Amino acid sequence: MKKIFIMNLGTTSFKFKLYHVDGDSMDVRASGEIESVGAAQSRWQYSDCNGKSASGASPVPNHGAGFTLFLEMLQVEGLLRSLDDLNAVGYKAVHGGNLSGTRIVDDELIAEMERVTPLAPAHNPIYLSAMKDIRKNYPNLLQIARFETSFHATIPDYRTTYGVPYAWREEFGIRKYGFHGSSHEYIATTMQKLQPEAKRVITCHLGGSSSICAILDGKSVATTMGATLQSGLFNNNRVGDFEPFCLPMLMEKLNCSMEEVLAILSKQSGLLGLSGVSNDLRLVLEAADQGNEHAQLAVDTLVDNILGYIGMYTAYLGGLDALVFTGGIGLNSDIIRSRVCEKLAYMGLVLDANANNGRTDGCISTTDSKVSVWRLKTDEESIVAMNVCSMLQ
Ligand code: ADP
């Protein structure tokens, strides 16, 4: 039996799950999260399989300190006898450049993550800092990273290439990588169990950060994010695909540096920028209902963007057997699901209105629909845990 501590890190957030893995069975024994890492007081919460749950506030200066906080809690609560009781820590790491898949955190991996940090400036530094801290403080602890790009390694070269000088791909790694791999992989694996005959699947991971993936026979063959997590779908506060030739004009008109324009495109654009209301779809939908035209335009743009990619990916797949919605928006917004699906009636896709309005995970299309539609909760950490465990074995 293996004990694995899986980390999912955000700029100021820390989430963990402790897994016990025994053969094919995998249990979450404890989980927890910290908000406002780096602030004077960070809020944390913890719960475990013995029914213990606790929360509190204390200074957690960085993600490495977050690991120590939970490591000590797990020992106090008896879930780990000592550090040696832990077989490995696993990361849902983001951008590994030329390194993909599941890998031991070593000098080569750290150097490659550092090299591609300009392509994932919000994510790679926090993972690198945690990896280095844990390496320093717990030198005998095995650290393993599963990259978010991994599931997309099967996308053909002609679809990961930009129309730029070929040397850029070789020399600078300017190519499409794709992200949210653990989520799309989890849905692909789940669909193979739920509807094994569905060979052509499109997964829509719609949340704070969104991407769509085309899956053929369980393998990713296209996805919306590219060299960075910024491209592709119109997001809550990110622009998604955009015209790079506008940048010089924006810098001049706004009297801004390139970094400042990029910060607007990545933090104050998308739903937030267009609606001027919020980056939370619930508030944008509310404003649209009350007649706010910009909010309505933002919702229409989001739906149209999703629809466009579904059309493109259906062409790539040569048809569509199943369409899956996941992520905070995908799971919770019956409105977005129905607005997208009503435009897919031409495929013979028919949503079951009652199932769509409900809150249960599962199939939400009618029995005679030519394409099945699903609302499924994703579980990214379980994919990381499974891959870390296969590596250990
Ligand atoms: P993250 O990508 O940060 O993990 P989530 O996948 O949890 O985020 O998605 C968060 C988003 O889900 C919020 O920004 C909110 O807009 C959206 N959301 C949550 N519930 C609803 C709802 N009932 N209707 C519409 N959107 C929702």
Structure description:
- This protein has about 400 residues and is an alpha/beta fold.
- Helices cover about 40% and strands about 20% of the residues.
- It is built from 15 helices and 14 strands.
- The strands form 2 sheets. It has an 8-stranded mixed sheet, with helices on both faces.
- The longest helix has 25 residues, at about 295-315.
- The relative contact order is 0.11.
- Adenosine-5'-diphosphate binds near residues 207, 209 and 332.
Total DSSP E strands: 14
Helix content bin = 25-40%
Q: Unreliable segments (pLDDT under 50, ≥5 consecutive)?
A: none
Bound molecules: adenosine-5'-diphosphate
Count of alpha/pi helices: 15
Key features?
393 residues; alpha/beta; eight-stranded mixed β-sheet; six-stranded mixed β-sheet; 15 helices; 39% helix; binds adenosine-5'-diphosphate
Short description:
The protein is an alpha/beta fold.
